[in-house]
């Protein structure tokens, strides 16, 4: 379908790989947990004229943007404003042949002046769901230094987490993302950086993960996924951060070994493995995709197939 006014600018990552991994050309019912600009949703719908998609996003702006064109697909597409941690409740009695989660934020969110980008002069918000929770400004300007340190450490900032937390507390309060980025860039760590990635990039990512409880959301999604997938169905997850990739890989490996897990949509538990890891190594974008869409460079796709006799 062609791009219409009001369409999102986000470019879906590893679109063909996702459509193929979920077997969308064969037809089925899919859950897109992270609708965003709707690129993956469209790819899944276009792969087979009988496909149906239920798509969730915790960001109401993404859902509103999607509603402008969702009508083209009639009843084949349902959009729901919900975090994916609430997927099991949000989708009621549907069960899916394939589930996708493309984690992190969209290019649209980055460009909306909400404090996700270093360049934002007005906001330091970073909430994906603007209707609830603490903003990044509230957190950075009032949390004890130790809490900021823990958020940075959990978000993968590494050995500089303590020094950066101290810098932030020294320079606060911050009103905008640009002020926060400047404080990090102006610090000793910003000046003598060793890695190619600027410390402010990693700090912004860690703060965003904390503000949106992103690791907790992934844990809850993976808790509930087996309950909403059909026997033989697949779960595909794209991450952009090594901490998240490890959480996904570990959970999938655990599902593959014997254990006790929720194993079908009635919530019965299985005392055995519940499926198999489809790709031992994460699937990554091709060089061609990375040069066309540099935002895809750190993406990792992992796929799990649930047993057909759960
Ligand atoms: C990388 S974008 C997805 C892009 C999308 N696949 C596309 O092709 O346009 C991530 C989206 O997931 C949403 N999101 C992130 N965490 C979420 C969560 N826990 N629950 C629901 N949506 C979430 C964000 O608001 C954002 O719109």
Write the layout of secondary structure elements.
Blueprint: H1 15-21, E1 29-32, H2 39-46, E2 52-57, H3 60-70, E3 77-81, H4 87-90, E4 96-102, H5 107-111, H6 136-142, H7 145-154, H8 161-171, H9 177-186, H10 188-191, H11 199-211, H12 214-228, E5 229-239, H13 242-256, E6 261-262, E7 269-270, E8 275-277, H14 287-292, E9 300-306
Parallel strand pairs: 1-2, 1-4, 2-3, 4-5
Antiparallel strand pairs: 5-9, 6-7, 8-9
Helix pairs in contact: 1-2, 7-8, 7-11, 9-11, 12-13
The structure holds S-adenosylmethionine.
S-adenosylmethionine binds at residues 10, 12, 33-34, 36-40, 56-59, 62, 83-85, 102, 104-106, 128, 217.
Could you please describe the fold and organization of this structure?
The protein is of the alpha/beta class. It folds into two domains: about 15-110 and about 215-305, Vaccinia Virus protein VP39 (Rossmann fold), CATH 3.40.50.150; about 130-210, Putative methyltransferase TM0872, insert domain (DNA polymerase, domain 1), CATH 1.10.150.170. The protein has helices at about 15-20, 40-45, 60-70, 85-90, 105-110, 135-140, 145-155, 160-170, 175-185, 190, 200-210, 215-230, 240-255, 285-290, and strands at about 30, 50-55, 75-80, 95-100, 230-240, 260, 270, 275, 300-305. The protein has a seven-stranded mixed sheet, with helices on both faces. Helix 1 crosses helix 2 (about 40-45), helix 7 packs across helix 8 (about 160-170) and helix 7 (about 145-155) crosses helix 11 (about 200-210). Bound molecules: S-adenosylmethionine. S-adenosylmethionine binds near residues 34, 56 and 58.
